[in-house]
Amino acid sequence: MASQETYTGQSIRVLEGLEAVRQRPGMYIGSTSRKGLNHLVFEIVDNSVDEHLAGYCDRICVTLEKDGSCTVSDNGRGVPVDMHEKGVPAARLVYTTLHAGGKFDNDVYKTSGGLHGVGSSVVNALSVWMDVKICRGGYIHHDHYVRGVPDIALVNGLLPTLGRTKETGTTVAFLPDPEIFEVTRFSATEVRSRLHETAYLNPGLTIVFRDERKDEPVEVTYHEPEGLVGYLREMNKSSEHLTEPILLEGREEGIEVQVALQYVNEFHENVLGYCNNIYNADGGTHITGFKTAFTQVMNGYARELGVLKEKDANFTGAEIRNGMTAVVSVKHPDPRFEGQTKTKLDNPDASRVVAKVVSEVAPRFFDRNIDTLQKVLASAEKAAKIRKAEEKVRTNLLTKQKFSFDTNGKLANCICKDPSKCEIFIVEGDSAGGSAKTARDRNTQAILPIRGKILNVEKASIDKVLANAEIKTMITAFGCGFSEGYGNDFDISKLRYDKIIIMADADVDGAHIGTLLLTLFYRYMPELIGEGHVYVAMPPLYKVVPQKGEGVYLYDDKALERYRREHKTQKFTLQRYKGLGEMDPQQLWETTLDPATRRLRRIEIGDARLSSDITEVLMGTEVPPRREFIYEHARDAELDV
Predict the structure, then answer these.
(1) Looking at the structure, do residues 203 and 236 belong to the same domain, yes or no?
(2) Residues 63 and 142 both lie in one domain
(3) Which of 55, 269, 330, 557 is surrounded by the most beta carbons within 10 Å?
(4) Catalytic residues
(5) Contact 354/326 with Cβ under 8 angstroms?
(6) What is the residue-wise DSSP string for 475-524?
(7) Is there a single domain that holds both residue 86 and residue 26?
(8) Pairwise CA distance, residues 554 & 254, whole Å
(9) Which of 360-364, 390-394, 524-528, 560-564 has the weakest average pLDDT?
């Protein structure tokens, strides 16, 4: 810690231009993982979508190029290129200055996905190079940047031109910087999902996606004239429909509201929120307003029609939303989000306006569609009955059956009781579990051995899930309960361990065990993943012991190939670890348990809707979609996940 004498004015560092972005990229794009990498594409696309919202763009093209770069072009007005009062062309100001852009001028953009005005400049700062071509005023204006710094000279103070054109629009190409990002290959799956989603939210927009990286280039065009109704049909295409899609629309206080909902014969809800075309993974005030108002409307009908008697309690919101798929989309002139990645809307007026629109429009629909109303109430009634039955199951399985984990031979708990310092390793098998118990730091590391593969919760009912011995053990060990479709008994504040680490063998069976565990966490304890508590240990596959020098652990086949290339003349012995149980306690500590030397992979949810869909495909009961997914992604599974 700096003393008063050393902490002086010279200690205050001023980061010039875009240097702050390169110094702390996570503040602007969330992370430097593939999730953050893909976010660069979305920032540029969002600017083009804003041109569409303003009424000047109806076509966007996104291309993943062979050299690893991405090109986004639109037929909007083109970024202004005239001289700004700051003494530089307006376009250069947009791409090199934080908080500069037309989104701050309500006369230019009534609504936009951008809040901070940092998108284009952040992408520029985090790229090896960025190339910009602007068609405007009859000319093609050109600028180029290297790691955020312009390297093209101005002509009479303005951008140089490449020729004349009758077209208008902006084309931005950029190459992500490997000095910043952990990986630099865009995920075609995630980019395509986001672009298709954007097409559903903007019925008048056409988006073309091209992937030039494959041996046979891929081109897909997204145009969805049905809008949110088409979005619902796509999401529920494999489900049994209880109702047709319902569209509720309105405008209040300058905020446009669209809510599309549909009921299917499934026991869960799926409510997605968007503000100005941006997906809000953590919901926000617009979702709160919708849920509150819709619950009040449905309970009012239930009382009026006698579904609920005077002595009956109201249906809960979860019961009313049982089987519901809904998309809540608002267009807000001044959105406020939590963070640059815009995962949660924070405007109080959004809740008020959405609630008012739903309260007024929903009754007009249901008064004219009594059959649909009765199906919704029947679904809520069924959910209430199941919830009451499952409360008994939950009580029997989790309350009456107590576990003394420190004495039953399963959990080897740690001494420390401060959750922020504790971590638990879930280990498959008695052999690996025994080594881990011997090798661990008993003060902060707990070991929970499990036997083989746990139940696939994607295919099982809640009573079977809670009856599974291994799952009960984990739920009780973690201490925070679980979530399921009819309520939420999960309390993250009661979590006993800051890190939950899946430690399985580095083979197919180990990967399957890890996948089953992640499915359990994702479906029944999603907050564990959402708040960054779930990790996967990365044990080495090999140990190389040269004739001279110390042994080296290698974590995959590529590392082994690289070692062989770099040590062609050196003789060495190679040890292959087929499982964690083959390591002695010292080796297990050095490679997998020691916080100073181990490798952990933190599990994150990027696109929540896409993650849910993929989980359903890979772990669900239907075989053909799973086979189709595997065939489609087999060739690039390691590169493009």
Answers:
(1) no
(2) yes
(3) 330
(4) 428, 505, 507, 509
(5) no
(6) HHHH-S--EETTEE---GGG-S-SEEEEE--SSHHHHHHHHHHHHHHHHH
(7) yes
(8) 59
(9) 390-394
